[in-house]
Design goal:
By secondary structure, the protein is an alpha/beta fold. The protein has eight helices and eight strands, in the order βαβαβαβαββαβαβαα. The protein has a single domain, classed as Aldolase class I (TIM Barrel, Alpha-Beta Barrel). Helix 2 runs parallel beside helix 3, helix 5 runs parallel beside helix 6 and helix 6 packs parallel to helix 8. Bound molecules: D-xylitol-5-phosphate and zinc ion. Zinc ion binds next to strand 2. The site of zinc ion has 6 residues, from strand 2.
């Protein structure tokens, strides 16, 4: 089965739009997921926060499992938790398709990434805005996706940090050297305007919470990010 978003050299220029469930109405999650799919979402981005790695608590594996059971959309699961190694299996069992862990978290990064791939999932590595690209470089052969956070993680609705564009360009250059194959994802403050800047710098996966789920017309908002 070919899953939308599988990594191949050809599709790094294909833009993937991943609405973040964090901005959805939690009182009717199933309907919100269906609304995103109908509006043209390629992936659904799931922000898991533990109140420790970031200053907010969102949801855990039970919600990931419920979303997986309600809809077949590709689940891009972003673990903003201090011990991704400890909780990893629960998110694998919940039905995540891609799991992204932070390089700044307290774990053996290489081992965690290997475990994700061994389970048959795609592996992502995230960098906070202040973390240099050099921290991710040793793991480039182990990842399907590099997430460059464009806000300090923890909350939706924050302003895009323009200074991260330099890191995105550096990542794209390293990827273009031909030795590595990974998506470049951006997350935080993404709308049609900032998505255009990120795409110009080399990003191809756009996570967008507020600008999609809270738009008057979600399909138009997704289209605008795709075409920006
Ligand atoms: C931030 C999260 C984001 C967040 C993005 O900590 O990782 O995924 O939901 O929200 P917006 O698009 O509203 O900035
Ligand atoms: Zn996220």
């Amino acid at each position: 089965m070919v899953r939308i978003g599988c990594v191949s050299k050809a599709n790094f220029h294909h833009r993937i739009i991943a609405p973040s469930l964090l901005a959805a109405n939690f009182s009717r999650i199933g309907e919100e997921v269906a609304r995103a799919v109908k509006a043209g979402a390629d992936w659904l981005h799931l922000d898991v926060m533990d109140g420790h790695f970031v200053d907010n608590i969102s949801f855990g594996p039970a919600i990931v499992e419920a979303v997986n059971q309600s809809n077949g959309i590709f689940l891009d699961t972003h673990l903003m938790i201090s011990r991704p190694d400890h909780y990893l299996q629960r998110f694998i069992d919940a039905g995540a398709d891609l799991i992204t862990v932070h390089v700044e978290a307290d774990h053996d990064v290489s081992e965690t990434l290997q475990r994700i791939r061994n389970a048959g999932l795609q592996a992502g590595l995230a960098l906070n805005p202040a973390t240099p690209i050099e921290r991710a470089a040793p793991f480039f052969d182990q990842i399907d996706l590099l997430l460059c956070m464009t806000v300090v993680p923890g909350f939706g609705g924050q302003a895009f940090m323009t200074e991260v564009l330099k890191k995105i360009s550096a990542a794209a250059e390293l990827r273009a050297s031909g030795k590595h194959a990974f998506h470049i994802e951006v997350d935080g403050g993404i709308d049609a305007v900032t998505a255009a800047a990120c795409a110009a710098a080399g990003a191809n996966v756009m996570v967008a919470g507020s600008s999609t789920f809270r738009a008057p017309d979600m399909a138009a908002a997704i289209r605008a990010i795709r075409e920006a």
